[in-house]
Amino acid sequence: MLAKVRFxxxxxxxITTPLLVPAFSSRADPHIERILKxxxxxxxxxxxxxAYDVYYKKSIKDITFPEMIFLDxxxxxxIKDLCYSQVYYSKDKPKKWDIKLYSKVxxxxxxxxxxxxxxxxxxxxxxxITKQISEAKNFFKRRTYFLSxxxxxxxxxxxxxxxxxxxxxxxxxxxxxxxIGFTEKEIGDxxxxxxxxxxxxxxxxxxxxxxxxxxxxxxxxxxxxxxxFISGAxxxxxxxxxxxxxxxxxxxxxxxxxxxxxxxEYKTGRLICQSYVDNINSLKFxxxxxxxxxxxxxxxxxxxxxxxxxxKAYQALxxxxxxxx
Length: 325
Fold this sequence. Notes:
Elements: E1 7-9, E2 14-16, E3 19-22, H1 32-39, E4 47-50, H2 51-56, E5 68-72, H3 99-107, E6 114-118, H4 129-141, E7 147-151, H5 164-168, E8 179-183, H6 191-207, E9 214-217, H7 224-230, E10 235-238, H8 240-243, E11 245-247, E12 250-252, H9 254-260, H10 268-295, H11 307-321
Parallel strand pairs: 3-10, 4-5, 5-6, 6-7, 7-8, 8-9, 9-10
Antiparallel strand pairs: 1-2, 11-12
Helix pairs in contact: 6-7, 6-11
């Protein structure tokens, strides 16, 4: 079984995986600080915020409510590509952003909360896996007060999917990082391919005695996250919890959620706020299901309404991976 409890150790405490991390970004809502303010009494576990937003919306630097923060490098806010969970294009033109501005945020970042920094990436930049790892090591070498999350990207611009074998060839070089990260859309071009590539990476990491969490960026819905989890990934984040409503093990259109779950007379503002709260509670429940899956040695029934679909996907993964699974 590839799914296991793994650890993120800080100077203050040890946090266990799996981790379902609500992400906050101006790309989902330009008034992201309002969502942070509203949800702070409901969120107790780690969140992800963008250094880009910290720089241009300085008020969010005063966050105190989670036990750990993932500080993203800001590359996502700079691009206009439509991601899987995005339902519209942002109208705001991206502001200037580069590694110098990211470093400026890191240098002034308060150390009262344990923070995991994501290695810098830019959508126009493509480098070999070897170069990405080397630059990330140098980047974190000067910032030892952060935990390190290296985000690995495809090596060439025309290459939309990362070459997993290139990462496996450099597997020993990953020991210096606390977390190994990939985006969902770049780890494979189908659900089964993503599961397969994650499983290959986890198997290779196990053989190299690297018991570090794998972080899948952009995956937090109630179906995809468990699929990648049973494939060997550990940490999941995205903006789906802001853009959609979680209901009966699915991510659905907010207006449908209003009909299915909430009083029809709810005004839009109240509906959205209630959706945030319900989504956070859904993530807590899903995280509990994942932990129960580990403790029961892989009983798919813990995933309730999605159990048959998840077990079917796992069987497809076993067929593709073979005996190593």
